[in-house]
Amino acid sequence: MTHVAESGSGPRSGADTPSIPSPVPPTTLPTTPPTTPPVTAPVLDQSTREIDKATFVPLDVETPPIGQALTKAAFVRQLQLQPDEADAIRDRHPELAEPLRDLLTPPSFSPAPLSAFAAVPTRALEGYGQAVVALRHERAQETEESARGAALQALQTAVVAAKGLEANTAAPRMGLMNLERLEMTPAGIERGELVATIPLAPQEETAVTYKEWSVQKKEFSSIVTDSLETFSETGVTDNTELAQSTSSQQQHSNQFNITGTVSGGIPVISGSVTSGYTGQDAASQSATDSRKHATTLTQKASTRARQEHKVTITTTTVTGTSQTTTRTLKNPSATNPIRIDYFSLMRKWRVRLYRYGMRQTYDVVLPEPAATMRRPYAELEALKAQLGPFVFNIPHNDITAEVRKGDPEPPTTDPPTPKSPHYLVLADQYDAQVPPPPPDLPPQTYAVETGPLPQGRGVTRMPLNIPAGYEIVNITISGRMTSFAGHLGQFTIEGTTLPFDPFADKVFDPGTVLKRGTDGGDFMAGATGTPVLVLVFDQVSTQSLLLTAEVRPTQAAMERWKFDVWNALYTAAQTAYYAQQQDIAGRIAALEARLNDVDTLTLRREESDEIMKNVLRYLLGGRFPSMPKEVLDAFAAAKVDVAHGTGFEGNTTGPDSTLWTTVRQYEDVVRFVNQAIEWENVVSFLYSYFWDLPESWRFIREIEHPDANRQAFLRAGSARVVLTIRRGWETRWVNFVEHGVIDDPNTPENPSQYWTIAQEIAAYDDRNYPGIPPANPGRAATRLEDAVFTTSTATVGPSTRPVSIPVASSAGFVVGAQVVIDAVHGLEHSQEAQKITRIPDGTHIEVAALDNAHTGSPTAPFPVMQPSEKGELIAEWNEYTPTSGTDIAVTSNLSAIS
């Protein structure tokens, strides 16, 4: 016999000694345990957790020889053909240019309509692209060095366009996406693994300290679910629940299941193998892959949840008193031992995977999806490159008062303004106040004062006072001397070459330069301060001599001036540099704050906008005139502030409405693209930086952002964007991308297999999921029970009148509901949806009409299904996660415990 008692996980007040009944003697135990009917735990549907997911299936079909008008037109726009290039290729390759004469229009002409590209052979465009590449390569080799950069850029553009055309036309772009929902519902509590066992001998008493806790290792501080439409929701739940574990697991699943980072309107995307579109086979393969993906997802989540739950039971033997967390257990039997087992309680989850819709998809590959967002980072890199130590590269010998060749010319004036000395040019460059150089002084004159000259020889010492900072260049002498009567006079200056010859009357012409007697150089040249001249007179009665010293600044004075100017320039440059560095640091801080301090919802919206802009650029052309030049010119003439978007803040509407005609001619295309694509469900796959140009690898790889998703977006070299086509627009979209037209003719002129596939996808979606709301239905939508299914072995239809279909059972079917009759057989349209008009009895269902014939047999009956709004149930399994509860059993049957 097994006795079970509940055990709480919290502390108790006071000692707790449970009453344990005496065990049954072994001789009275039954040989087999009694059989009791199993108790089915209720399923808590009101606590169901839901996760939207999708399975993407690319189609592997043969590429048609014609069509793909959108891809071909995008190639022509990307080629950026110039008029002279079109003429040159026409002369060299007339066989390539003539068939494409009306399509390959230079930018100055009006673009050709999209429909004109549908019938152009792909090979012809590829040949023309190679011809453009060869022509630009040849011209790049012949271009001068100064203009070679633009020529190489044009060559690169042609190479990328040619490679893009080859890649985009080689593989099909059509695919399909199964819209699915993962529902997890609590389905009861079951006994889990054995945690601990406490054996008690007869009459043994022991104290059990019971502790239980749950370690919550939080990988993410919160789970953020951002809606690109209206709100940003932060959900924080109990980590022991499967819903939280699965939500966390999703974030890793994106990295494990696809190459790159995924963003878009559908949280979880699982990929299916590329396969040919064979109706039910492709659906079965994608369903298998989706089940494997969802099962792996929940199993990993529940495994991690179990790893985070820990239970510890410590057993101690005590005597006397016990603490509040201690239970005293005693075996009252004097002969039989007993055993107390502790089990963890596990929460059981019923996991169901529903498929509730299908969408056609169209793939495009976009280069540099975050090109616009990288511009601030390029500015940031340029600003950081300007930070560094102060460097002043003006040498002292570069400071001169002379006019240098190459200095800026002064403004034209009348009379002309002379050029400034070089030191003033430097002062203007660094905005410095500099001292002027030592001025040029006029010649210094000294009159010879000797007083009355003696009869005979006399010597006069004459000091010259040279201004400070100047030196003598040369000394000249002028004047006249006469001798005493009856005598011949003599005169000289010691150290000079003046001859001491007799004279009666001697005249020194002005400008007579004194020379040194030693080497014939200028006398006293380089002398500073107060040099002394020694004048020798003999028999000279009168004299009127004048000495003139030409002076100039000394070399030391010039060096001091240069040093003062250099210091002034250095101080001014350093002050300006540090002010500039502070300004740059402030700009860097402001730019980093603008880039990093952005909420998550805004980041996701910006990324979605960039993806949408790049898709529109691909679909409609890089120079698509969303605002034509004529309108911009009219705004400028009306003095409208177009830079800040404030042109219509007043009561007037601005320029005349006729100026908008250029925009209106594209309205149909713009409206179609925005309506045909479910932009809320567009999914992008980001590829690494090395899918970009090699020259930008270093810059892209070093971009950092605190938000991991934004950093991945910024570092993406290219992005694969899966456009989800809105329900009911499948054939119109094929007409647009294949033939360049946006209407939906019943019989297209050039039908392709894509048109047939689009029809089949639409039919499959309508006939397998009648009455299903659009993608991502709201949580408040009405949910019916699961689908009702039966089979029929009869042969019925077609008929325009009500038809009674014999079925195995009509239980659960409802009058007025739609039923799906038969299954999909390849591309045959045998499956159909009809409305139930009457249920005669338990084995018949009457429908309003039958469009097709349906043949059943005892060995191969055809199905009849009444779908629910939940969709088609393609998988169901159970998962378990731990709870905080613990179960206790006394002498339990261990052999019956798994």
Characteristic terms for this protein:
898 residues, 29 strands, alpha+beta, disordered N terminus, six-stranded antiparallel β-sheet, 18 helices, nine-stranded mixed β-sheet
Number of beta-strand segments:
29
> How would you sum up the global shape?
elongated
Gyration radius over CA: 50 Å
Q: How does the major sheet shape up? A: 9 strands, mixed
Q: Beta fraction of the residues?
A: 25-35%
Structural class: alpha+beta
Q: Mean pLDDT, as a whole number?
A: 75
First-residue to last-residue Cα separation: 19 Å
Q: pLDDT below 50 for ≥5 consecutive residues: which ranges?
A: 1-33, 218-260, 767-785
Portion of residues in helices?
A: 25-40%
The total of helices stands at: 18
In short:
By secondary structure, the protein is of the alpha+beta class. 29% of the residues lie in helices and 26% in strands.
List the helices and strands and how they pair.
Layout lengths: L2 E5 L41 E10 L10 H11 L3 H10 L1 H4 L24 H21 L5 H23 L3 E27 L4 E10 L8 E4 L5 E4 L6 H16 L4 E3 L3 E4 L8 H28 L1 E8 L9 E5 L7 E30 L3 H15 L36 H9 L13 E4 L9 E7 L6 E14 L6 E4 L11 E9 L18 E7 L1 E14 L1 H42 L3 H21 L8 H9 L23 H4 L2 H10 L6 E5 L9 H5 L6 H8 L2 E7 L5 H10 L13 H16 L19 E5 L2 E2 L6 E4 L11 E4 L10 E10 L2 E4 L6 E2 L6 E5 L5 E19 L8
Helix pairs in contact: 1-5, 4-5, 6-7, 8-10, 9-10, 17-18
